[in-house]
Prior knowledge:
Distance between the termini: 28 Å
CATH class: Alpha Beta
Shape: globular
Number of strands: 9
Radius of gyration: 20 Å
Number of domains: 1
Helix content: 40-55%
Order of helices and strands: EHHHEEEHEHEHEHHHHHHEHEHH
Largest sheet: 9 strands, mixed
Amino acid sequence: MIKEFEIHIDDDQIDLLHKKIKLTRWPDEINNEYWSHGTGMGFLKDLSKYWINNFNWRTHENELNDIGSFKFTSKTGLDVHFLHAKSNEENAIPLVMTHGWPGSVQEFIKIIPIIQEQSNRPIDIICPSLPGFGFSDKPKELGMNSKKMAEIQHELIMALGYKRYVVQGGDWGATVSKWMAELFPDNCIGIHLNLVIAFPPKSENPMEGVTEKELKLLGHLEKYKAEGYGYFEIQKTKPQTLGYGLNDSPIGLAAWISEKFFGWFDGNETNLVISNDELLSIISLYWFTESITSSARLYKENGDFGFSFNSIQQPMAGAIFNRDFALPPRVWAEKIYNVVQWNEYDGGHFAAMERPKELSHDVISFIDKLKI
């Protein structure tokens, strides 16, 4: 069953958020140059003041409603929230765009109109909220990993009346997209990724065919493991323990999420490449839906990868943003994917928000290559 879903947070919930921000008990801080110890307190205090005095949640919930907000009841019994931006033409190509963590469907607000307005072909865009994220239901049982989410998203696309579709994703959305391509090859006709998961082949020289530039980019992953991997291990092992604090403290939640948008972007603590409003819209969504704990559980469900290393035959495009934390060489990706497009851009992990034009044009170029 599919039904319209109007997003509306009650005023008393917004008032409660402001009260809890004001009641924050701040910790001390020592030598936090370049956020070396975590989210900078000066940044966070300024952000908290903006959250109370300047940020308007109504603007952001209206943006989502204007795109087209719906819910779908899957066979699992879970209601899945999704955005559905339809073109004005018949026989449009369905493009399924899947977010990751700590993202949400809000990541795609910029990219949806660019793709639809500049594409040579009519495109319908479907952006599901993963189970446990945003306004989707929280899983009630264990086992809701990327593979299961892919099955639910495929079920949604079939329920919408589409027969064939293209998938696009980054972060955990890349794993869900890969599973959709692998599990439903007759329906998924192309896969576009802005985070490509691929590892060195074990049966041969892994560096054969790797360029000097690609070798340098591989260093990003080692830096990420050394300086920014702690959250992953916590969420992979004890997400529930973490959730008590983050679900109760809006400043704790803001610190946890803001750090990722600082560390995984092409920017620094004084020049974040998204606005306070964009950042707070995502943090507020996690807060109002109380989904930080359920979303973090995906790490435990997926373990290290949430990914199958089986090869797929559909055409694949990799959009490589050179300040992301996982940047495998093309020759590694070709062991798994049928690579037909591979482009590199400046930018970081959250490409749809940071570099919407570049990502949009890459998606459009890829869809133009598909024989539909």
